[in-house]
Structures are given as structure tokens and as C-alpha cells.
Design brief:
By secondary structure, this protein is of the alpha+beta class. The chain is built from 18 helices and twelve strands. A five-stranded antiparallel sheet has the order 2-1-5-3-4, covered by helices on one side. A five-stranded mixed sheet has the order 7-9-10-12-11. It has a two-stranded antiparallel ribbon with strand order 6-8. The relative contact order is 0.05.
Length: 668
């Protein structure tokens, strides 16, 4: 029995494990979701917007109350609340009494008593009694609302001095035609919503918060500012992107949106101020109006913040569109005027002035003619002086060019239209002539140097050939020196042949007549081949070749035969001119979309020459064509021309005795 129970228990455990494994396999592995900042959360922005509006409204009311408390001579802190209420009730009761007297004494009111009752009927007044002097005793009026009277009872005296009843103290009665005594008794408990109940509620709140209101103002102000900063940071942010995005509201021109908002709230403000009654309904309406105004203002600020983040916010304004249109019209007008020939422009302006003269002379009165002539003189005189000065500058500039001062430039500051164009043309002529003269001088100098260098390099082997040929002719047949002289002849002939071949190749490469077959080419293989071939030559010259070629294949579009010639020339130069006992560096690397091949060595001779000069034909680093170093100064020129033909770039850098050649080719 126990064994059966154990078997059943084991089966249950195995079954539960299988079910759990299947459930875990069926349930996809959840990946952690990147938590977005609160500035991208819509619920957070809505909550912050509502909280900011509420705290801003409370802060505004609190600050206003604080200002009232500070400027009220501290009556809230020195006068008891009941006495303050009595003072406010007395002012309100006086206004009610005055309104009742005005209605009772108005001859245009048909039923003055009913109208007087309507004035005080819905107020917290228990009773009111009006007693006029003898001549108006028939207008006496009393009112009883049925409410339980309270302790607040006020008596007012009004006197008529011919302009209607006004309140005066009993001692000022001289000249009064009639008088009215009004007694107002307020209800014990305020059940109606009027100014009495509103004043009572305001004073209760004011006295309850007269000390705490300053703390509330500071806290709500800080909260409102914090919410405002958060909303400015969150404006334009959405859950789908880290970059700010435009919304529907940002498509409306900002100044149009601002003007519409100000117009709507200005209208409601005017209506509210003209009909304010200071009852419960008015207080609620003012609160709603203030919250709506704050919400609209905050929305405008958020819209402006989004536009600023998107950039160019001023372009989406009606003001900018109008000003831009006006500016385009002005530019178009001046562009149209600039296309009109100078003679025609002069004629049009002259005709316009002539027509204005005829118009004012024929139609205007004498004072208007004088004003017109004065204004015309104010406009024309500076214009004539301006054109005279500008023409003088043009004349001086053209005279300087004519005298050969090609570097003379005419200042175009203050010039407009054709004058500026003429000055620019003269400056361009001067620059062009200076460049042409400089290029011509450089070309003549290079031709002279080329002829001199070519003559020297050809003359040296040719002289040897002539001399040794003469020696061979003078030697008897079978002389052992003939073989030695023949070897010299062969060596000098090869040197002359290489010089002529280099000249031809340089000429073809410079003129673009050299055939180049571009194909995918592995730079690694060519550099490895160069390293193998020049290893012994470097050792013979006392140099150490250091190669830094990556294992990764670097492929470019090039002609392998021409590219090898470039490498061969650069390494051959290193063997000739590098300081013995130093290292020669050869490296390859990828920089962006380019393959960069670098050759560096320390020069044996001082490199007192610029990189540009060293790249010219028949220029050598030692500047001496009589040194023992072989070379004709064409190696770098050929290398540069071949590199250019293969869409590459060869640059030389010289820093003291350090020589660096850098080749750049686009990667494929």
C-alpha cells in the first residue's frame, strides 16, 4: 500500500514538473522595457498641467491677499473680526439705503414702493424703514422680510441740496431742501447669497488664514514654478521619439494664436468688470475665468517652447510672413531695377521728378510748393553727393589699375546697384590680372629652371659617353681597358635612357595621355611586395624598414602597375636621401571611406624647401645637382601625376628633417 502511494506521489510530482516546464517553454521570455523619462509620459504631463494650474491659481490669490494685508494698515491684525464685519456691513447697508431712496424719489418710476421692495427683497435684511421730512412724508416706506432680526442695526441720514439725496452727518444741514432717515436692521442669520454673506465668508477665511496665507503663497508659488519648468521641458516630447515633434497646435501661427487668446479673454474681462456684483455666482465665474486664463497662458508657453525646440519658430508667425513678403517685394523691386540699364534708370527718375514738379507747380498752393521743394532738396542733395563720392572712388580705382597697381581694391561699402557691380567688376579685373601676371612669371621661371635642369642632367651622361667613346677609339685592339670603358658607356647610356623615359612619362602623366586601367586592387599585396623587394636595398643603405600593414584586405580602384611605380619612387627616394642608421616607416590604415598609405623617413640633408616646391619637376631635396646621389628630381612629380590619374591624392609633409608622404585613395 505504501509503495503504491509512493508511486502515485512520484507520478504527480513528475506530471506537475512536466506541466511547469511546458508552461515555462510556452511563455515567451520578457525583455526589460526601456523606461522613458517623465517628460515623455502623457499622463505625467496632464497631471503636471492640472497641478500647475491649481497651484498657480492659489498662488495668485494668495499673493493678492498678502498684498492686501500688507497695504491695509494691518487692520486684519489689529481690528477684531466682528468689528471689521460691522464696518463692511455698514458700508453695504449704506449703499442699499441710497439705492432705495433713489428709487422712492425717482419721478420716472411708476410703482416706487414695489421697486424699493425689489431692491432689498433678496438680501439678508430683516427690516428697513425710510422717513422723509414733512414735505416728502408721503413717500415714507417700510420693509419687513419676516426674518429674525439680529444685532446689526444702522441708521443713516441723507439730505437733498438740489442735486439729489446724499449722505451727510446731522450737523451739515444748511441749505438742505429735505432729508431722509433710513434705518436698516440685518437678519440674525444670513440665508441669502448676497454681498453680506459674501463679505462674511471672505472675512472668516481672511482671519483664519491671515498668518498662514504667506506660507501658502510661498509654497504654491514654488510648486507652480516647478510645474512650469517641468512642462517647458516636456513640451514637444512624445513616447515614440526622443526628439521634439510638432503637434497640431504648433501649425497655427503663434502670433495669431496669441492675439486670438488675448482678444477672447479681453472681451470676457470687459464683460465681467462691467457687470460685477460680488455675489457667489460672480466669485465662481471669476475663479473659472482665472483658471481658464492660466490654462490658456500655460498652453501658449508650452506651444512656444515646442516651437523653439523645433527651431525657426518665428517663421510660423503672421508677422514674419508679412514682413518676409514685404522684404521679398523690396528685393524683387531692386532686382528689377538693377536689370534696367543705367541710362534708362536715369531717364525714368528724371521724368518722375519732372512730373512731380509739374504737378506741384500747377495744382499746389504756395506753402505746399515751398514744402515740396524743401523735401525734394533734402532728398536729392544727399543723393547727388553720394553718387559723386562713389563715382570718385570708381575713378580712383580705375586709374590705379591703369597705372599697373593691380593689388588696388575698391571698397564697396555703401555702394548699391550698378555702382557696386562696377566696383566688383574692377576688383575682379585687378585680381584676374594679378593672377595672370603671377602665373606667367611662375611659368617663365619654371621653364627656365626646367631647361637648365634638363640640360644639366642630359649633359652629364652624354659627356661621359662622348669621352669614353673617344677613349675606346684610342685604345689598341685587345686592350683590357676597352671592357672597363664599355661598362661605363653602358651605365651612362642606361642613365640617359632612364632620364628620357622619365621625361616622357612625366609629360604623358601631366597631360593625361598616359593609359591607366583602373580595377579592384589589394593595397596589402603591393605593400608586402614592396617590403620584400626593398628589404635588401634598405639594409645596404643602412636603413631599417618598419611596415605596419593590417591583415584585413584593403581594396581600392587603381592600376596595379602604376600604383607600384608610385610606391617604387617613394621607397627609392628613401633609399637615396634617408639618414643612414634610421628607420623608414611604411603603414596602411582605413580612415572613414579612404585608404591612407604613409611613408616616413628622416632626411640625411636639411630640408630647407617647401612641400610644394619639392613636388615640382627636377627639384631635389639636396638642391645640388652635383652631389654623388643619383636622381633627376622627377620621382615625386611622377608619383603625384600617377596618383592623380588614379583618383588619389598625394601630400607631402616636412617637419624639420622628418619627411612624410601620404597617399589617399577611396575605398571600395
Amino acid at each position: 500500500m505504501e509503495e503504491n502511494n509512493k508511486l502515485v506521489l512520484a507520478e504527480d510530482i513528475e506530471t506537475s514538473e512536466n506541466v511547469e516546464s511546458k508552461e515555462s517553454a510556452a511563455t515567451p521570455v520578457s525583455h526589460p522595457i526601456k523606461k522613458l523619462p517623465l517628460t515623455h509620459s502623457l499622463p505625467a504631463k496632464v497631471a503636471a498641467f492640472i497641478l500647475t494650474i491649481i497651484t498657480a491659481a492659489v498662488a495668485c490669490v494668495s499673493i493678492a491677499v498678502c498684498a492686501m494685508l500688507v497695504t491695509s494698515n494691518h487692520q486684519v491684525y489689529t481690528v477684531p473680526k466682528d468689528e471689521m464685519k460691522r464696518m463692511m456691513y455698514e458700508n453695504e447697508a449704506c449703499d442699499n439705503a441710497k439705492n432705495v431712496i433713489s428709487v422712492l424719489t425717482d419721478p420716472n418710476v411708476d410703482d416706487s414702493r414695489a421697486s424699493a421692495t425689489a431692491v432689498v427683497d433678496l438680501k439678508n435684511i430683516a427690516s428697513m424703514n425710510v422717513e422723509f421730512s414733512n414735505d416728502l412724508s408721503f413717500k415714507n416706506w417700510s420693509y419687513d422680510s419676516g426674518k429674525e432680526p439680529g444685532d446689526m442695526k444702522f441708521t443713516f441720514m441723507f439730505y437733498d441740496f438740489g442735486d439729489g439725496f446724499i449722505e451727510r452727518s446731522s450737523s451739515v444741514v444748511l441749505g438742505a431742501k429735505s432729508s431722509a432717515k433710513v434705518t436698516v436692521v440685518l437678519a440674525k442669520s444670513f440665508t441669502s447669497s448676497d454681498r453680506y454673506s459674501m463679505d462674511s465668508m471672505i472675512l472668516d477665511i481672511l482671519y483664519a488664514l491671515r498668518y498662514m496665507i504667506f506660507v501658502i503663497a510661498v509654497i504654491t508659488f514654488i510648486m507652480a514654478i516647478s510645474g512650469f519648468i517641468f512642462l517647458m521641458s516636456a513640451s514637444g516630447r512624445h513616447q515614440t521619439s526622443d526628439k521634439p515633434e510638432a503637434s497640431f497646435g504648433t501649425k497655427i501661427p503663434f502670433d495669431l494664436l496669441l492675439a486670438g487668446t488675448l482678444l477672447v479673454f479681453g472681451f470676457f474681462s470687459a464683460v465681467m468688470l462691467s457687470n460685477i456684483e460680488r455675489d457667489t455666482f460672480e466669485i465662481i465665474f471669476i475663479g473659472i475665468f482665472m483658471i481658464s486664463l492660466l490654462a490658456a497662458g500655460l498652453g501658449l508657453c508650452m506651444s512656444l517652447a515646442t516651437r523653439i525646440k523645433l527651431g525657426g519658430w518665428w517663421k510660423n508667425t503672421v508677422t514674419y510672413m508679412i514682413l518676409h513678403f514685404i522684404w521679398k517685394c523690396i528685393k524683387g523691386f531692386f532686382k528689377l531695377v538693377s536689370k534696367i540699364p543705367l541710362v534708362w534708370k536715369t531717364m525714368v527718375i528724371s521724368c518722375g521728378i519732372f512730373l512731380l514738379d509739374l504737378l506741384f507747380v500747377g495744382l499746389a498752393d504756395e506753402p505746399e510748393k515751398i514744402i515740396y521743394i524743401f523735401i525734394r532738396s533734402i532728398i536729392l542733395l544727399p543723393a547727388i553727393i553720394y553718387f559723386a563720392v562713389m563715382l570718385r572712388n570708381l575713378l580712383k580705382g580705375s586709374r590705379a589699375l591703369a597705372e599697373g597697381h593691380l593689388d588696388q581694391q575698391i571698397s564697396t561699402g555703401g555702394m548699391i546697384l550698378d555702382l557696386k557691380e562696377a566696383a566688383n567688376n574692377l576688383n575682379s579685373i585687378g585680381k584676374g590680372m594679378s593672377l595672370a601676371v603671377e602665373e606667367r612669371t611662375k611659368s617663365d621661371r619654371m621653364k627656365t629652371e626646367l631647361i637648365t635642369n634638363v640640360s644639366h642632367d642630359i649633359k652629364t651622361p652624354l659627356t661621359s659617353i662622348i669621352n669614353y667613346s673617344d677613349l675606346i677609339m684610342k685604345e689598341p685592339a685587345g686592350s683590357e681597358k676597352i671592357a672597363e670603358y664599355s661598362e661605363v658607356l653602358h651605365r651612362q647610356s642606361e642613365k640617359l635612357k632612364r632620364l628620357i623615359d622619365d621625361l616622357v612619362e612625366t609629360s604623358k602623366a601631366t597631360t593625361g595621355n598616359l593609359e591607366v586601367n583602373l580595377a579592384p586592387c589589394s593595397v596589402n599585396e603591393l605593400l608586402s611586395q614592396a617590403e620584400g623587394e626593398y628589404e635588401q636595398k634598405m639594409e645596404a643603405a643602412g636603413l631599417t624598414l618598419v611596415s605596419d600593414v593590417p591583415e584585413k584586405t584593403v581594396t581600392i580602384m587603381a592600376d596595379g602597375r602604376r600604383l607600384w611605380r608610385v610606391f617604387d619612387n617613394l621607397l627609392n627616394n628613401a633609399c637615396k636621401y634617408a639618414l643612414s642608421g634610421t628607420r623608414v616607416y611604411m603603414s596602411l590604415e582605413e580612415k572613414g571611406s579612404e585608404a591612407v598609405i604613409t611613408f616616413k623617413n628622416t632626411s640625411r640633408e636639411a630640408l630647407n624647401i617647401s612641400a610644394d616646391e619639392l613636388m615640382e619637376r627636377f627639384v631635389r631635396g639636396d638642391k645640388s645637382r652635383n652631389s654623388g646621389t643619383e636622381g633627376n628630381g622627377l620621382g615625386l612629380a611622377i608619383a603625384k601625376s600617377l596618383t592623380d590619374l588614379q583618383n588619389g591624392k598625394l601630400e607631402l609633409f616636412i617637419d624639420g628633417d622628418l619627411f612624410k608622404a601620404e597617399l589617399r585613395f577611396p575605398l571600395i
